[in-house]
């Protein structure tokens, strides 16, 4: 099966194989692996040893995003949130339920927030302490560039929390160049092509340390993750870690470096995206985003008219070995195809061919033949495709 979803992504067999072992997380062997992963992540984030720390947390991406919000924004505190996609909406809910107050910039989900919009919002809301934003909006595929976000926050003297879950590892970013950032947050199961089950925040040490207890949740307190590392070493997990996921991540990081790191990964994803967009346009499908707003992570396309049904389309693709999401997160009906994961340009060409076959067959079918076949017992409608 070729998995073309924007996470958890298709992985290398060596990454999956690394999970097939029992692990004692407090054993010295594992502690060495864990500490090495934290050091490697710090390096990939462009963090400075001693100044920044890698803070892992069990759970999926939502958990680490909530942990960052809770740790750095005080209860009742207000922060700026550009609303241009479904993951911004998730930040809104995570923050609101945690008693942090989002001040939204309302935007369409088809383009990034601009510097002028950020400046205006900061000017109108001097009470906010932070800008919190999604870098790669996985609902549509746009990129809110951290360079634009960071520069606006620096001009306003505000701090930044970046949900870089579907960007980290592919989109260029160096913490050392972004003194305004309190937390850069990601998971291994997107552009780093690892497994789901753990999240990471990379944060400035001093600022994090000073916020111990502010989270209002022991489980989600990144300052407490830091304290644990400071007291017992960065190889010591706080609570039971997703040990197999971490070991697999170690292998994924090795493969990442072998491929050539961030520039190579971005280049492969961009090529995947180019093939996808050109292929879909050749099939007569309309991309949801203008070319200048298209990020490298995920392609969204307007659903064709007529009798198009997303689940039927997805089922037909799956029978041919290509799996895409059976839902969409844009304001208009679309379908989405991930360009990330252990997926090569040839896989993308194959996927475009398969999509073309399926669309032709879906459209080519005369309605009377379809109802005839659907009436036949034991034959699910999809099987005529
Ligand atoms: C995947 C993703 C998350 C986290 O989602 P989980 O399902 O909790 O892992 C958060 N933000 C963005 C932008 C994402 O793409």
What does this structure look like?
This protein has 385 residues and is of the alpha/beta class. The chain folds into 2 domains: 15-258, 3-Layer(aba) Sandwich (Aspartate Aminotransferase, domain 2); 261-384, Alpha-Beta Complex (Aspartate Aminotransferase, domain 1). It is built from 13 helices and 11 strands. It has helices spanning 13-17, 28-44, 61-72, 86-97, 115-124, 146-156, 205-209, 222-232, 243-259, 261-282, 310-319, 345-364, 367-375; strands at residues 2-3, 52-58, 78-83, 101-106, 130-134, 159-163, 181-186, 198-204, 298-302, 322-323, 334-338. A 7-stranded mixed sheet has the order 2-8-7-6-5-3-4, with helices on both faces. A two-stranded parallel ribbon has the order 1-10. Strands 9-11 form a two-stranded antiparallel sheet. α6 links the parallel β5 and β6 (159-163). It is globular. The two termini are 18 Å apart. Residues 7, 60-62, 65, 87, 134, 138, 163, 165-166, 187 line the site of pyridoxal-5'-phosphate.
């Amino acid at each position: 099966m070729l998995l073309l979803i924007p996470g958890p992504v298709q992985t290398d067999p060596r990454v999956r194989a690394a999970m097939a072992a029992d692990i004692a997380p407090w054993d010295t062997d594992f502690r060495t692996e864990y500490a090495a992963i934290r050091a490697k992540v710090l390096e990939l984030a462009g963090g400075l040893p001693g100044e920044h720390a890698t803070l892992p947390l069990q759970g999926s991406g939502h958990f680490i995003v909530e942990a960052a919000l809770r740790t750095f924004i005080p209860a009742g505190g207000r922060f700026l949130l550009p609303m241009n996609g479904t993951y911004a909406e998730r930040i809104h809910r995570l923050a609101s339920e945690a008693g942090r107050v989002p001040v939204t910039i309302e935007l369409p989900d088809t383009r990034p927030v601009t510097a002028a919009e950020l400046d205006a919002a900061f000017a109108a809301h001097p009470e906010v302490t932070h800008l919190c934003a999604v870098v790669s909006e996985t609902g549509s595929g746009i990129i809110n560039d951290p360079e634009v976000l960071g520069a606006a926050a620096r001009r306003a003297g505000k701090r930044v929390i970046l949900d870089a879950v579907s960007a980290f590892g592919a989109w260029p970013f160096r913490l050392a160049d972004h003194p305004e950032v309190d937390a850069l947050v990601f998971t291994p199961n997107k552009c780093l092509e690892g497994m789901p089950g753990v999240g990471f925040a990379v944060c400035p040490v001093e600022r994090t340390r000073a916020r111990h207890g502010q989270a209002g949740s022991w489980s989600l307190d990144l300052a407490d993750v830091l304290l644990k590392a400071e007291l017992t070493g960065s190889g010591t997990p706080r609570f039971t870690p997703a040990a197999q996921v971490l070991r697999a991540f170690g292998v994924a990081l090795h493969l990442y470096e072998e491929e050539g790191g961030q520039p190579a990964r971005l280049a492969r994803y961009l090529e995947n995206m180019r093939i996808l967009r050109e292929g879909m346009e050749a099939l007569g499908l309309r991309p949801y985003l203008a070319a200048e707003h298209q990020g490298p992570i995920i392609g969204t396309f307007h659903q064709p008219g007529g009798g198009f049904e997303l689940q039927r389309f997805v089922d037909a693709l799956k029978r041919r070995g290509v799996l895409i999401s059976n839902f969409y997160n844009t304001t208009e009906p679309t379908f989405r195809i991930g360009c990330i994961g252990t997926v090569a340009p040839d896989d993308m060409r194959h996927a475009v061919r398969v999509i073309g076959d399926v669309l032709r067959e879906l459209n080519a079918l005369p309605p009377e033949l379809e109802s005839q076949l659907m009436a036949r017992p034991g034959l699910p409608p999809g099987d005529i495709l």
